[in-house]
Structure formats: structure tokens, C-alpha cells
């Protein structure tokens, strides 16, 4: 996977972002998500890859496109074989109600590089490069916060922790508060929350809590590319999810995965803002076009590029159709 491919992947997230942003604030999360899916699927057709979706919109019988196992790209002779994890619209509710933080994301790795995570929960702990090596999911939230603060040479009271605002996190939230750290509760979008830990300007230091396992793999790709650190552990909700995980080759439900195990080898990650958040601005429309803000990262070089793009619809008729 060369650096030119990384730039091409940004076009995929841009198209999905523009399509879903057209429907921002309409109150229909399914409509926004479907628009992103349709646009992203069309954009993949132009990529010179032999791609297989390993994390997508669900199983083949659950999703008409971007389903697990679907082949995408031109798939020509010599095109690189890659595994793909994607979320055409992370934060569907955020987009549907015009709230901050929704993004479109694609992670890509060499064949076999991404964990085939089942559609279940994952306990996650993520930090940026300054706290790399300080986290351990086997320890309590309090112990981890103290270790992170020590590694970053700050007080626990200086740390800000991102947590999904869910009933299941009430005990975790109480412990974080008792430890003295600050909390930023988010409605959706823990991929964006995990990535935010890797950028100083966001004011986010740690992500804690339980969210979707597929999103954990996507976040791990971005964290690896930026030099951050992450651990995850599957949390199946019922026997059916355990059986599904076993069918996907996962037998140890108690295993703690490092970021390097969730996204192995060379990985790249691209995201485009739909509604403005911590590290990406949302899509801004103007007469005859729009402006997008994206980020693309590669683990091989740890290069992070922020891309501001102006799109003129008379030059890109496909974009104007969204």
C-alpha cells in the first residue's frame, strides 16, 4: 500500500461525508446512513485495489452493500490485496440531529491485517502517544488514570476522559470522578473519541468504556498510525454473540488485544468530518460546491495529513447529485 493509495482513500470518505451532510438535521438517521453507504460504495469502484470488507454494514443477509466479505475496488492485475474496515457514517444520530462529532471513516491493512471482530461490545482503553505503555485493562480505571498521569507528567486532575453516555457506564463514571479526572460524555462516536486522544489540541487524554467491537478495530488502525496506545477486550452480551465470535475464529473471550493485534502490519486510516467535532470540521456547503476537512494517516511513516478540500460541483457532477 503506497502513499498514493492513502490519498485516494480520502476521496472515498469525502464522498460519503458530502452525501450524508446533505441530510444533516433532518431527523432521520437511517436516511443519512444510507446516503453515506451509497456514496462510499460508488467511490470504492474507482480505487485500484483488490479489497475485501472485513468490518462493514453487517453480514451479507443484513446489508445490500458494504457487507462483510464484499469485494470492492477495480481488482485489476497487480492491484494490492487489502482488508477494509469502515463506517460510512459514525454517529448517525449526531448527523441526523445536527450535533457535533459525526465522521466517515475507512481503515485499510494488508490482507489478514484486521481482526474480524464480531458485532458485539468491546471494553476499550485508549491514549495518545504521550501515554503509550501506561495502560492495562486488567487494572482499575483509577490505577490506569494514575499511571497515565505519571507517564504524561501531569496530575490526574489535569486529565480529561471521554466516555460514552450510557447507563452501563454509571459505575465507571463514578470511579473516574472519585479519582479526580474530568469527564467528557459523548452521545455517540467512540471512534472519534479514541482518535481525539492522539491530538493535543482536542483536550482529550483518555478513552474509557464499552462500545462496539468493530469500531474498536477501526480506532486501533488510527491509533497505530499516530503512535498512540490502545487495548480492547470483547464483551459478548449473550450466547449467540459468543457463538458468532467463535465462527469468526475467536475462541478466548477474555483475551486482551493490543492495538497491534487489532490492526496488524502496515495500516492506513482516513476520515472526513460530517458535522464539526474535536479534530475535524464538518462539511460546509456554498453556492455550487462545498468544503470538506479530512485526515489521512499511515502507520509505515506515522505521517498524519490534514486535508482541506474545496469541491466545485460543475467539475464533479457526481458530487452535485448528493
TrEMBL record:
Q: Which GO terms describe its biological process?
A: fructose 1,6-bisphosphate metabolic process; gluconeogenesis; glycerol metabolic process
Q: Which InterPro entries match?
A: FBPase_class-2/SBPase
Annotated Mn(2+) 1 binding lies at 33, 57
The record, for Pfam families, names: FBPase_glpX
Cellular component annotations (GO), alphabetically ordered: cytosol
Spell out the reaction equation it catalyses: beta-D-fructose 1,6-bisphosphate + H2O = beta-D-fructose 6-phosphate + phosphate
Which parts of the sequence bind Mn(2+) 2?
Answer: 87, 90, 215
- Alphabetized UniProt keyword annotations: Carbohydrate metabolism, Hydrolase, Manganese, Metal-binding
Taxonomic superkingdom: Bacteria
Residues annotated to bind substrate: 90-92, 121, 166-168, 188-190, 212
Q: Which cofactor does it need?
A: Mn(2+)
* Molecular function as annotated in GO: fructose 1,6-bisphosphate 1-phosphatase activity; metal ion binding
Record's NCBIfam families?
glpX
Q: Which PANTHER family match?
A: FRUCTOSE-1,6-BISPHOSPHATASE 1 CLASS 2-RELATED (PTHR30447:SF0), FRUCTOSE-1,6-BISPHOSPHATASE CLASS 2 (PTHR30447)
Query: Per the similarity annotation, which family is this?
Result: Belongs to the FBPase class 2 family.
What protein name does the entry list?
Answer: Fructose-1,6-bisphosphatase
> Which gene codes for it?
glpX
